User: Which sequence fits this backbone?
């Protein structure tokens, strides 16, 4: 999959590029596997903005992704590869032997017509197969990793990402995550073989502000350009320094180079090497 460059018919088109999706299916999403998610524009249940710069965007259905894949030892055929507007990765539509269908994150190299399966025991190390970390040999690239066995994949799900199983000693699996962090996992946590597809997503150039608005992103304003009531950097006449020892977020939390992770965070014991 490569980038698609447009002819410079307008100033915005001159620098715009998108991912070539010619190998994706043009079918509509499965009716049984879509649902409606109400937009929140970055606000929580109190109406306060907790994620800035979000709002608007085109309407979209949410595709229900099977992050668990608990139909063990049953072959599933890849029926279609589809675009998902809710994530950077593409998705694959599976059809099991009993006719049931499900969406999964499409790994790199998966093609229509291929048969994959999920198992809690030994299974062929093949792109798209899902098995527990205890049955994956060291050095294999994996994605969609569970933190808690049976809960479903929570890590390494975005386009182009992959983790690597480093070792399996003493009943504990060591995995190097895309950030470079090395973390330990229980042996019964499941992962999918291969790396997530659509790696060229990071090279997209949107070309114009309107494209970002269609994706649900609103304008970003510098803190220095605001009033004191709106941001710690706000206020002053003309171009003045922020007046603080460290840059701050709108809520006053230190930003840029100051560590804010809690020293007694419960998951610290699972991290062997920091990113």
Assistant:
């Amino acid at each position: 999959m490569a980038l698609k460059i447009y002819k410079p018919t307008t100033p915005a088109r001159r620098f715009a590029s998108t991912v070539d999706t010619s190998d994706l299916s043009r079918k509509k999403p499965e009716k049984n596997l879509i649902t409606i998610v109400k937009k929140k524009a970055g606000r929580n249940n109190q109406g306060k903005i907790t994620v800035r710069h979000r709002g608007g965007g085109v309407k979209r259905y949410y595709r229900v992704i099977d992050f668990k894949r608990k139909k063990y030892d049953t072959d599933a055929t890849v029926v279609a590869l589809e675009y998902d507007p809710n994530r950077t990765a593409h998705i694959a539509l599976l059809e099991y032997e009993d006719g049931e269908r499900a969406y999964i994150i499409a790994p790199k190299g998966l093609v229509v017509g291929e048969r994959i399966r999920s198992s809690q025991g030994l299974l062929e190390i093949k792109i798209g197969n899902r098995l527990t970390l205890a049955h994956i040999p060291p050095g294999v690239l994996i994605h969609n990793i569970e933190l808690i066995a049976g809960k479903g994949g929570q890590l390494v799900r975005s386009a182009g990402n992959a983790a690597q199983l480093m070792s399996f000693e003493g009943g504990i699996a060591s995995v190097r995550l895309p950030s470079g962090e090395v973390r330990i996992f229980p042996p019964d946590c499941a992962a999918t073989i291969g790396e997530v597809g659509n790696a060229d997503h990071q090279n997209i150039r949107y070309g114009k502000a309107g494209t970002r608005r269609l994706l649900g992103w609103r304008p970003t304003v510098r803190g220095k350009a605001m009033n004191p009531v709106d941001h710690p950097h706000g206020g002053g006449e003309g171009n003045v320094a922020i007046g603080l020892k460290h840059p701050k977020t709108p809520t006053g939390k230190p930003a840029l180079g100051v560590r804010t992770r809690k020293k007694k965070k419960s998951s610290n014991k699972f991290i062997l090497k920091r990113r």
